[in-house]
Amino acid sequence: MRRISALFFGLLFIIVGQSAFGQTAKLIEAAKKEGGKVVVYTSMETFTADSLKKAFETKTGLQMEYWRGASTEILDRVLSEHRIGKPIFDVVATTGDHMHLMAKEGAFTKYESPSFKGFAKDAIDPNLGARYRNVLYGVIYNKNDIKASQAPKTLEDVVKPEYRGKLVMPHPVNHTLTTQWLASLDKIMGKEKAGKFIRNLAAAKPIFVESIVPAADRVGTGETPIGITFVRFVLTYNKQGANLDYVRDYQMLGDGQYINLGAKAPRPNAGKAFIDFFLDEESMKIQAETGEFVNRKGIYPPLADADKIKFVQMYSFGKKDYEEKQKEYQKIFLQ
């Protein structure tokens, strides 16, 4: 019986593998007739996008061109092109909130990639497909300035008196993702604790910078020893010679990111071929190596205890929600 089962599953694997390969080959052939390239709009970091570009072009013989911008810039550009009916992009990959807004405007068409099979059911959105990565907010610190024994043990620790003047974070009002993060803290702390933490955080007088990268930069150089930013920057900066670690607070708020095919993509077959590649194992491993918390099953970034971190999705906000919270945090942090 065991032998028959093994043969059955082996045969099934071969059939599925051949089917996926057959689809990919057909898409690549069709993509070459479209011009042999795909255009991607993304908020991925340049070094990640460049690594994927090289791997995709080597594997398929197709070209990948990409334009990188912040999520809000991508939203504006995609909707502008979509509304006038002359999109340049084939594929978009960015944060969930912005992807949902673009989807509501009809900017995407559904494409159920065979690569979805590598993702758990709870990582598949009914409208956007696979949530390919989680962008996680946490606390990182420079071990040259703060010993592990003296480092904060939880997110709530960063407001303690001993860390006053040693903390950097993205601007709580001007940086919308940080506004969203602060407003979502009750999901991991409870409403009362979250409110108290936010007030104590303001009282601790953190240094404000325009976004997550400058916050990580200051920790990486040791200019400011502790930072609230993306956890994956520990790996990014350590590869450049820094000595960083992160606080092992295993429930972390964040936002999911998705990839979708444009409803009016000029090169739909190239777009599908790219999505298949992007969500498959080779691409997910490339992204994980740069520190990304990808959602393909069994793949983790080479960061200590990465498999223990529980992703908690931040609240989804509209324009009015952001404006209300920004007014609230203006009073708490800046007055």
Describe the structure.
The chain is of the alpha/beta class and 335 residues long. It contains twelve helices and 13 strands. Strands 1, 2, 3, 4, 5, 6, 7, 8, 9, 10, 11, 12 and 13 form a 13-stranded mixed beta sheet that branches. A hairpin with a 3-residue loop joins β5 and β6 (129-142). α1 packs antiparallel against α10, α3 (71-84) packs parallel to α4 (96-104) and α5 (176-184) crosses α12. The protein is globular. The model is unreliable at 1-21 (pLDDT under 50).
Number of strands: 13
Q: Examine the coordinates and then state which fold CATH places here, giving the name of the CATH topology of the largest domain.
A: D-Maltodextrin-Binding Protein, domain 2
The CATH top-level class label of the largest domain: Alpha Beta
Q: Shape from CA axes?
A: globular
Order of helices and strands: HEHEHEHEEEEHHHEHEHEEHHEEH
CATH level 4 superfamily of the largest domain: Periplasmic binding protein-like II
Roughly how much helix do the residues carry, as a percent range?
40-55%
Enumerate the spans where pLDDT stays under 50 for 5 or more consecutive residues: 1-21
Q: Tell me the domain tally.
A: 2
Largest sheet: 13 strands, mixed
Class computed from helices, strands and strand pairing: alpha/beta
Q: How far do the termini sit from each other?
A: 73 Å
